[in-house]
Amino acid sequence: MPDQRVSSSQRKTVFISLPDSFFTQAVPKIKDLAELKIVLYAAYLILQKKERTYFVTYKELRSHELMATIDEKTLRQALNSAIEHGTLFHSTLNINGVLEDVYSLTADSRQPSTFNIFALYEQNIGIITPMIAEELKEADRFYPPQWIEEAFREAVTLNKRSWKYIARILERWASEGKDSGEYKRDIKKDDPDKYIKGRYGHMVRR
């Protein structure tokens, strides 16, 4: 039987785009070749995702064929350096019931956007406190604008005008897939309290 594997030279070419600020502001902060590789690989994996989630998990990075020549120690060191230099942003998300290390591109590495999560919050919830501002910035780094807008819309529709409630919606979409069958089944249950049972449940205003 002939070998059905497709070589890298035979694969369809996929183009990704990075803003000029990535090369003028982010790249000059990078100190070594391993860090540069990891940042570029992370950008590639994030920007070519079909769902346009703005992050990549550590497991995805570690298991990808691009990492075949990079050992785990080097990967960890490169990620830590990228975080320290502000070229990648690190956080943790609950994905399928497991806390995962996730990495996103910082403002210097992403395409510019007119989306304003702060205006969305003020219009639908109220005054932004310093603590909320940090959480909004983090959400803006990780989730597509369309997700954030739809999560706000769903919370307002259910009269659950709380950022913690909205954050839980976004976490669940990231964990289960926004358009997954499981999520759709939960919607059919029409349980307005389905998002107060997670990590932020005790902080949601009823």
In terms of topology, how is this protein built?
Layout lengths: L19 H7 L6 H15 L8 E2 H6 L8 H13 L3 E8 L2 E8 L11 H8 L5 H13 L2 H13 L5 H14 L4 H9 L17
Antiparallel strand pairs: 1-3, 2-3
Summarize the structure.
This protein has helices at 20-26, 33-47, 58-63, 72-84, 117-124, 130-142, 145-157, 163-176, 181-189; strands spanning 56-57, 88-95, 98-105.
Largest sheet: 3 strands, antiparallel
| Mean pLDDT over the full residue set | 77
How many separate structural domains? 2
Can you say what the CATH homologous superfamily of the largest domain is? Winged helix-like DNA-binding domain superfamily/Winged helix DNA-binding domain
Give the quaternary arrangement of the chains: single chain
Label this structure with key terms.
mainly alpha; three-stranded antiparallel beta sheet; 9 helices; 206 residues; 9% strand; Arc Repressor Mutant, subunit A; 2 domains; disordered N terminus
Tell me about this structure:
- This protein is mainly alpha-helical and 206 residues long.
- It has 2 domains: 20-109, Winged helix-like DNA-binding domain superfamily/Winged helix DNA-binding domain (Arc Repressor Mutant, subunit A, Orthogonal Bundle); 117-203, Orthogonal Bundle (Arc Repressor Mutant, subunit A).
- It is built from 9 helices and 3 strands.
- The protein has helices at residues 20-26, 33-47, 58-63, 72-84, 117-124, 130-142, 145-157, 163-176, 181-189; strands at residues 56-57, 88-95, 98-105.
- It has a 3-stranded antiparallel β-sheet, sandwiched between helices.
- The longest helix is centred in the N-terminal third of the chain and has 15 residues, at 33-47.
